[in-house]
Model the fold of this input.
Amino acid sequence: MKWMVRIGIVALAAVLASHCVLGQTPAPAKTASTKPAAAPVAKATFAGGCFWCMQGEFEELPGVKSVIAGYTGGTTEHPTYEQVSSGATGHFESVEITFDPRKISYDRILDTYWHNVDPFTPYGQFCDNGPQYRTAIFVHDDAQRQAAEASKQKIEQEQKKKVVTQILPASTFWPAEDYHQDYAKKNPFRYGLYRKGCGRDDLLEKIWGVQPKEGQKP
Done:
């Protein structure tokens, strides 16, 4: 008889346990955290002669997040300013722009680029001569290439001159040394003397009718 009682007790305990489990309120399902979507960013890369003169032009544009001075287009890895200045690396002095395409279009950035360079001189820019100072647009996708080619053709038609600015595929961009970043802001007097002595603003005004901004004047 004892064994029958034990079997009954075990069976009753199993039933009660299953009822307890079945009767429990299910735990709420975990939901994924809803983080705000990251703002889209795009890159634009240009060579326009001395990169000191190019950073500030783009930093003032709404929608531009950063402008970095550096080197691109060549084969030397981790190039130094001295190496690039020798003209032997194949690199151009350049700027890499990070921007929000919802706030500013690539076309507007392109327009700013053209109006801050001399696109008709093949051997350099203003008083700086050498392959590292040539003008170039480094495109990151087909849309940028099409926009660059269309704008180049438009300038040639308007100016009735051949534009020698190259349109090249973007490659590794090597940031320049820290002392080159925002040089115009860090050294306004020296930069002003350089820009004035180089005749940059005089030639830009002659080509485009652009007057130098207050922040650019020496």
